Amino acid sequence: MSSKISPKQFSVRDPNYVERVRDAFARQGFLRHVDARVEEVAPGRCVIAADFRSELAQQNGFFHGGLLGTIADAAGAGAAATLIEPHRWLLTAEYKVNFLSPARAKRLKAVGEVARAGRTLSVSQVHLYGVDAAGDEQLCALAIVTLMILEREAPSLEKN
Amino acid sequence: MSSKISPKQFSVRDPNYVERVRDAFARQGFLRHVDARVEEVAPGRCVIAADFRSELAQQNGFFHGGLLGTIADAAGAGAAATLIEPHRWLLTAEYKVNFLSPARAKRLKAVGEVARAGRTLSVSQVHLYGVDAAGDEQLCALAIVTLMILEREAPSLEKN
Amino acid sequence: MSSKISPKQFSVRDPNYVERVRDAFARQGFLRHVDARVEEVAPGRCVIAADFRSELAQQNGFFHGGLLGTIADAAGAGAAATLIEPHRWLLTAEYKVNFLSPARAKRLKAVGEVARAGRTLSVSQVHLYGVDAAGDEQLCALAIVTLMILEREAPSLEKN
Amino acid sequence: MSSKISPKQFSVRDPNYVERVRDAFARQGFLRHVDARVEEVAPGRCVIAADFRSELAQQNGFFHGGLLGTIADAAGAGAAATLIEPHRWLLTAEYKVNFLSPARAKRLKAVGEVARAGRTLSVSQVHLYGVDAAGDEQLCALAIVTLMILEREAPSLEKN
Question: How far does chain B reach from its first CA to its final CA, in angstroms?
């Protein structure tokens, strides 16, 4: 499959975007609870990974679909966060995951890439891969994540 | 909002459907890891809940969106599982969650209801509520879950 | 299925909301081209309908899925538009449709209801029904529509 | 953006797949009504296009979102149809579209590519582009389409 999103030069508006994404990630108890980690942060791009263990599985020994959604959301939000201004903040508005093949692998990797960087909404596309012991990757899920950009870290979504 | 899905009589094809849903749930390491529990199982319906704790939160103290997706998937799949034949099995094909208000609550509740019970595909609608200490509920997310019905518990989705 | 979205009192902020929804609808060439019509407008609610004819069908004589999506989008946007301020404007950010049963009917009806009325984002839930000659309705699709609220009718989405 | 779906060799199971996709397309009244045309058919891939005219627009002179969804569905289904056996048939189970930028262009192009070719379910990813007079393309929407594979052309989805 050839390149789909034109390799436009994403404008970074916060020089500390890497630190910022890693910090936002570290502050989320649920992402720590599922042992997700940030593997890569670049303009318009964020890769999240998790190693297999039974606490992350469903009944057949695959990574659980809820975990795939969680990692996809984190990768999509992380990618969008690299492009916002220093004082702004993100909340996920919606996400959607399609499962393509069972995620039975040593490691799960979610690659989030920005498809639209807007002023009030951003959209990321996420490809999820199962990675085996040899490092071979198999696409196991596709996701789209829509993010709302807030003026600042809001204690409540209610008024936005 | 008035009733939307006609209260058709769902046909239960497995007399042990309650036990079956609870058993499938118990075998999923990830659902135990997030302390989700089955609150109710009825024909075409399944309610899943989780109590708030920091391991389930994002950075603002709300339930994490990934957890909401996980619970929604479980409620939607559980609802669909009440209506399948004893020898069949379900796998989630896709799900989508829209976040409506911040899930800052003592407890999270996902109510899954079957909108379509097919032979190869079922579709569930899920409403997620934040429940406060007084028991008041606020709708915080909507989800749709599509389930694939397999001939039997398959070790692999690949050939289906 | 019991009531899901609490019957909260939606606050209408534009006394001319009915006229406004009908006017926005009338200005959309594509909605006229598919012969869709507004059947009902109320606070937080909009019903759109279309009569069957072969120009709206797929190869089996059902209403085409693309038409169902179009009508769902229009009903969801119309419902959200009833609750915004006079000077604001809506654009659909995303929508998702699940097909439950073939829409082989005399008439198609999409009932859009607001699930969240925000300042920058609104979310509507849509139920689509096939209506036969006797007036009996069958649920044939479910949709969720996310709308972005703009400060004014913008000539371009690009900067928002 | 680099290649995301590994360029696996898709196995064509029906030597007449091109004719088949074009024929299925031609039989759909709604696709003719919106003047959509098949631009390209290849294993695992289908491109659909439509030229701008006011009957396909919303109120700001952009292509209507419902049309984008329609074209996305057709491109996703067409791509999946290139890989199924001669006696099988497809029905869209669900689709989801995210709008990234206003589709104000001379021509709209939807590129559908198969992400999963299964026995009962296929999933296609669709990128939609606005094409201007000079032939320059801008990504304006992303979609995911889930298709159900039927044993044969069914008069009804109800029993599947």
Answer: 38
Nearest-Cα distance to chain A for D7, in Å, is 6
**Below-50 pLDDT ranges, chain A:** 1-3, 156-160
**A12 touching chain D per CB within 8 A:** no
Give residue-wise pLDDT tens across range A3-12.
355 556 789 9
Closest-CA residue to C30 (of B15, D60, B17): D60
A33 burial class (0-12, 13-18, 19+ CB within 10 angstroms)? buried
Q: Dihedral of the CA atoms C13, C15, C16, C17 (nearest 10)?
A: 40
Mutate to test the interface with D, among C20, C55, C68, C94 (most CBs of D within 10 A): C94
What is the residue-wise DSSP string for B28-87?
-HHHHHTT-EEEEEETTEEEEEEE--GGGB-TTSSBPHHHHHHHHHHHHHHHHHTTS-TT
d(CA D90, CA C99): 13
Residues of A in contact with D7 (CB under 8 A): 1
Angle at B17 between CA B15 and CA B21, to 5 degrees: 165
Give residue-wise pLDDT tens across range C94-130: 999 999 999 899 999 999 999 999 999 999 999 999 9
C98 with B123: Cβ contact below 8 A: yes
Which residues in chain C have Cβ-Cβ distances shorter than 8 Å to D93? 98-99
Question: Residue length, chain A?
Answer: 160
Give this prediction's pTM. 0.93
